[in-house]
Amino acid sequence: MDYYKDKLEILLKGLMILILLVTSADAATWTVAPSSGPGIDYTRIQDAINAANTGDTIRVNSGTYYENVDAKKRLTLQGKDTGSGLPVVNAGGSDSAITLSADSCTLQNLWPGIHHPAILG
User: Is residue 14 part of a domain?
Assistant: First the structure.
């Protein structure tokens, strides 16, 4: 009986270590810019969102991004003025520029649209 108890204890300890390793993974930061270059991961915000994991940060550099953005997982979308003002998402009048579909998304310094910012969430 002690044999099985010892094996079960080892198995449970291993499982707990595995759970701790998986849940303590660091969130990543992805960088988006209108054109590719060193340190730039994506040139489209939606591509970065699709590649990101829950809890990651998408840092969006200055520029105008012509796309519809939909965050369907908990992320931080963070605009960064890299010299030409805060980034703008221009959906061209089709739907919303930025939609936050997931709970607990964070939007910082990122303008949806040019004249009339509108955020759905």
Answer: no
